[in-house]
Amino acid sequence: MRIRIFPMKIHEIKTRVRYQETDQMGIVYYANFFVFFEMGRTEFLRNLGLPYSEMEKEHIYFPVTEAHCRFRSPAHYDDVLTVQTWVSELKHATIEFSYKVIRESDKSLIAEGSTKLACLNANRRPTPMPEKLRKLLQ
User: Fold this and answer.
1) Which residue from 94, 43, 105, 32 is spatially nearest to 69, judged by alpha carbons?
2) Strand runs labelled E in 5-137
3) What is the secondary structure of 62-89 as a DSSP string?
4) Over the stretch 62-107, which tens digit does the pLDDT of each residue have?
5) CATH 3.10.129.10 describes domain 2-133
6) What is the domain partition of the chain in residue ranges?
7) Fewest CB within a 10 Å sphere: which of 60, 111, 114, 133?
8) Residue 131's CB: how many other CB atoms inside 10 A?
9) Exposure string (b/e) for 96-105, b if CB count within 10 Å is 16 or more?
10) For 1-17, how does the pLDDT look when each residue is reduced to its tens digit (9 = 90+)?
11) Which DSSP letter does residue 92 get?
């Protein structure tokens, strides 16, 4: 069963690009966008009152099974970026988060993407999404 979630709840965090996040050309190295996505996702869940640490205490794990990013404009050292995060799809045992990264100074869209996560139990086997989490996300 697939449930489409429209971005009714968009969570935002801000981060400043650190020098070590840039490459030789002075722009944010592409792999760091997945770090920004993870920052957004973990804070989204924490804001709902369900940080990863609490789910792991209950032996529920969420590994990333897919990750996508489309780069729109470069970001540079010291840029302040806003990472917007929302749930774009919720299924029986998977969840998809979508993201936008926007430069604060000029509101440019820097990147957009998504990650899909599987819900696993203590034996690292697929399991239904916990009802507590499903209710928070719907």
Assistant:
1) 32
2) 11-16, 64-71, 80-91, 94-103, 109-118
3) --EEEEEEEE-S--BTT-EEEEEEEEEE
4) 999 999 999 999 999 999 999 999 999 999 999 999 999 999 999 9
5) yes
6) 2-133
7) 114
8) 8
9) bbbbbbbbee
10) 455 555 568 999 999 99
11) S
